[in-house]
Amino acid sequence: MRFFPVRLLILLCVFSIPVFSQQQNAGELHGNFQVDAQYYNRDSLIGAPVVPEKILTNGFMNLWYTRGNFTAGVRYENYLNVMQGFDPRFKGSGIPFRFASYNNDNLEVTAGNFYEQFGSGMLLRAYEERGLGYDNVFDGVRTRYNPVKGVYIKGLIGRQRAFFALTPGIVRAADLEFNLNELIPGGDSAKTQVIIGGSAVSRYQADQDPIYNLPENVAAFGARMNVIRGKLNFGGEYGYKINDPEANNRFIYRPGQALLVSATYSTKGFGVLLAVKRLDNFDFRSDRTATGIGSNINFLPALTRQHTYNLPATIYPYATQPNDEMGFQAEVTYTIKKGSKLGGKYGTQLTFHVGGVNGIQKDSVANDTLGYSSRFFAVSNEVFFRDYHLEIFHKFNKKLKATLMMLYFVYNKDVVQGLAGFGTIYAPMAVADVTYKFSDRHSLRLEAQGLITEQDDGSWAMSLLEYTYSPNWFVAVVDQFNYGNPAEARQIHYVTGNVGYMRNGNRIMMQYGRQRAGIFCVGGVCRNVPASNGFTISILSSF
Amino acid sequence: MKPFRFLFLFTAVIALNSCDIVDGPYSEGANQAPDTTVTYVKKILIEDYTGHTCGNCPLAAIALGQVHDLYGSQIVSMGVHAGGFATPAGSHFPADYRNEVSIALDEYFNVSAVGNPNGILNRRFFNNDPIVGHTDWATKASQLVTEPAEAWLTITPGLNLSSRQLTVEVNSKILLPLEEGLSMVVYLTEDSIFGPQKYYGSSEPGEIVENYCHRHVLRGSMNGIWGNPLSAATSFAAGSETNSTFSYTLPVAWNSAKVYVLAVLYRTSTKEVVQVEEKKIY
Lengths: 543, 282
Prior knowledge:
Strand content of chain B: 25-35%
Largest interface: A-B, 32 and 34 residues
Radius of gyration of chain B: 19 Å
Oligomer: heterodimer
Distance between the termini of chain A: 27 Å
């Protein structure tokens, strides 16, 4: 939709400079390309919506050119029309990403679009997640300066992407990090490593609201620290945001606070991870009226394990509640020694994980515009999410290896998905994943999963059979069966067949079959995908 | 029968009063629009895309009420029931306020695909996007109401109560010269339809308000989804007037005492609204 012919011309001139000249330091051109196209069949049984275009496609290409201290890049995106499940405001085509960057004497300057992260991302993180249709890239200028060893300074000013346009708010941010071991003479050899950092982020958005007296400049401050000594790693980050009445917190004037603390201990064959998180009114956007996915300045990670197996990952995935969350996570990994009875020839890896999220205790407050009050560390009894699981991985011999996982989820569907009437789901699950290698080139993988619940859509069973012909081919058949659905007509098999070919950075994948409606989440950010029946082809290339 | 009739009337009075807009805690003084019977003002059409199972939608209705309070008759609104949250759902939400027009508008502007509640003001694109979140309606309206009126519409309705035949005459007077084609569509809305509405955070059982007052529900159009060109002209001089007549038979299910005619004059090429007017049919 937005086409910048002049800028494109300039960039094309840059790329038409001969890059394969005989000189040294000739510069390199890299990039990647992906197009996904889906053909949609009608299927009223699974509730697949009718698609008038029949074929929907998402496509993009990235190009980066590096020569010495100079880097430039561009990305073209195309949605004709955008695939189901993505925000329909991704429409048409354009160049939403272009930048030029130069690194001169430890000062790196960037103009155009850039991604950035301060610390854990609690105050600021611009990133992209193609599969979610998430891209809050900055458009502005950024400097990164390393004046002396151990001191890292970042500064940026810009607006964020909103589809093929920019959000109304202007973000100004700075980050300062000290690596004390690099900074202090002799610190290199110290047993303890200490990194401390601080950030300040401010958003300006004009107040033209005739009803509310809105703060035009909203600032957030953060401080972080990381201490590493031997096998122990301890980190913490605290954030404070001044009053930020916005659509997501229903226009309350309460300041926001966030805390993230984690500690890990790892040694050969044994590791422990402990983490605690508190979020109180910490949704921070570059458009105070925006809702849903998009316009976020910060990123608040879900303190839960990112599952890769189908049923745990897609049926009840957790989404971060930026305004109201108290979470904890504990994970122990242990390897039973090889040679022992349970360890077998190669050892057995055990992972035990306990994680959960509750709301924060909110007390009513006399002044309505402040919303609520909440003492720090006050937790409410409302359970949002629980994830208990045990994973066992064992390699039997050169040909056979297997993973077994047992899980128990407690999932408050109303809170997590922003609905009402579904209540809390209790779901024990089991996953078995077995790979058998016939020879160097041929291997077969079988997965069987089950989810048992009496709530919501009932129980599910999933099976997958995948044949890999190394190094290029794979073929798979997947079936998800909602055998426990209370409505008999909706006890449906969702079967898909997949074929893929990869070679030299190119990949072609095809899929045919039925896909159930679902929520696709990455790192606590989710989008809804409607059910579909049809054929999908994806072509990827990196060069 | 008599006490029952009295009780019914009493309940009706209470229920009708429950349709009043709830005042919010304002911290700034509100502008009042000038008296529109004397001066020509630009009126704003606010379309509230909503549905009865959309639990966040009552908040948008409250926001819409606040905008009405601020700018009085300069705001003309309609509730467009379409998308997933407007479909009948189980025994609790049997009503179907969707129709050919609301579904077509929702699909054209892709509103429910983005999410509900959401709205459109004068079908104007802000930053390449016509969809405006309800927390932004007051701000966007405050910008639009100060724009000069480019046209003025006068609606003269006539209803035959027994045959339910509605005839409407719309006079379009151009106030500022316009160098493009114009079209007119005449929508019909029914105000104050009572029915269940999901409302997240409500203290009602199941978070469902049983006797919710649906305001200005878009029921249909007198001349198709997008209406017709005002005339064959592609430029209009200031002062030029056009008279158009429309007729429609009101379905029996509609409460004719609550039906409004909404005449929308818009730019044919961009669909942006030039002027809007609303009139109760009797």
